[in-house]
Write a structure and sequence with these properties.
- A hairpin with a 6-residue loop joins β3 and β4.
- The chain has one domain.
- The radius of gyration is 23 Å and the shape is globular.
- It is mainly alpha-helical and 367 residues long.
- It binds zinc ion.
- The site of zinc ion has 4 residues, from α8 and α10.
């Protein structure tokens, strides 16, 4: 087994361990009825349900974080360093993780308080919750490039004039107005390279890792930019949001039915009881996991389409394939993961398959 495959086998195995720990943790919380104990503790201070929800969630969430911290450290720091992907010192890595955890906690709490407010006020909570999550997703997408990315990176407009001119020409050929391009200083942390289209409206921009700008030839960078421009032209952010909204609708509706059916077992007289948080987490978490393969399958289709767009627009298949090869090397990508793993877990097609599709495109045009 080569180095990349070994790295991904280990990461996958540890990811499965993390999932098992998470399930066992929630099962234990339910078995000892931690929800009622924590809620009772909160009630000694206040009857306000919003504070009780926050308290139960904070304690259960913090317990899970602490329990899985060693695993997060091995997966996020130790292994990437062993395999030469990461050179960030432990202190800086911890600061990044703390920021990410704080952001996650804030967003999670907003979602939770919103869902509980709806659970406590209407039997159609699952319908309203879908709209609420859509609203939050729109907001999060809009602020991500301007408020979240700067927490982790220094971001500057693409300074290279020649590259900028090429992008403008590219956007013109693609029949779209130019999208701003920004560069972030990934090289401070890691050798990995990446690019992505983020934000919408006035915050929409393509973000490039500086590793990509320094390690790739201008033709290759142009090809990567063309791929990102493809996502823009195809309105993939909106497609993603629309799919996510359908998934949340089905998830919340199914969660309602399951939570009601479970009431004889859970002993929750009201679904909006803060003491039932572990049940809500198990049901929503389980349904969320089921939706992952669907989201990934749609995502992979959008990636293939953006690849096709990049090659057509630049008329330079060799440069795009070379860029994919270079990305694969830098990121220690698994070129050919097991098919089932790709189908279930990967948002992007496997490198070998991506290149094969592009090359097949070439030979079929020759025939
Ligand atoms: Zn893409």
């Amino acid at each position: 087994m080569d180095r990349a495959a070994r790295y991904h086998r280990i990461q996958l195995a540890l990811g499965a361990v993390g999932l098992v720990i998470g399930v066992a943790y929630l099962a234990a919380a339910i078995a000892v009825d931690a929800g009622h104990a924590l809620d009772a503790a909160a009630r000694r201070l206040t009857e306000a349900w919003s504070v009780r929800v926050a308290f139960v969630a904070a304690v259960l969430g913090a317990g899970h974080r602490l329990l899985t911290f060693p695993l997060a450290w091995v997966r996020g720091w130790l292994l990437p360093r062993r395999f030469g992907l990461l050179h960030q010192p432990l202190g800086a890595w911890l600061v990044d993780r703390l920021k990410a955890a704080a952001l996650g906690a804030i967003l999670g709490l907003v979602v939770l308080e919103g869902v509980y407010a709806l659970l406590r006020s209407t039997a159609l909570w699952w319908l309203w919750a879908t709209g609420f999550v859509l609203l939050l997703s729109l907001l999060a997408t809009a602020i991500f490039p301007v408020l979240v990315v700067p927490l982790f990176y220094r971001m500057a407009p693409l300074a290279d004039d020649a590259l900028r001119r090429r992008l403008l020409a590219l956007a013109e050929r693609a029949g779209t107005p130019a999208v701003d391009v920004f560069v972030v200083d990934q090289s401070r942390k890691s050798r990995t390279a990446n690019a992505g289209l983020t934000g919408f409206g006035r915050t929409r921009r393509i973000i490039l890792f500086d590793t990509l700008v320094t390690e790739f030839t201008p033709d290759e960078i142009e090809a990567v930019l063309a791929h990102e421009l493809g996502h823009h032209v195809h309105r993939d952010l909106w497609r993603g949001l629309a799919l996510q909204t359908v998934i949340s609708f089905v998830t919340f509706a199914a969660a309602h039915a399951i939570l009601v059916a479970l009431q004889p077992i859970s002993g929750l007289t009201r679904l909006g009881d803060p003491a039932g948080l572990a049940w809500l987490a198990v049901v929503l978490g389980g349904l969320g996991l089921l939706a992952v393969p669907l989201g990934n399958t749609v995502s992979r289709a959008l990636e293939y389409r953006a690849d096709g767009f990049a090659v057509r627009t630049t008329a330079n298949r060799a440069a795009f394939v070379a860029a994919l090869e270079r990305l694969g090397d830098l990121n220690l990508a698994e070129r050919r993961p097991p098919r089932l793993e790709e189908v279930l877990l990967h948002s992007h097609p496997a490198l070998d398959r991506r290149i094969a599709v592009l090359t097949r495109g070439a030979s079929s045009r020759l025939q």
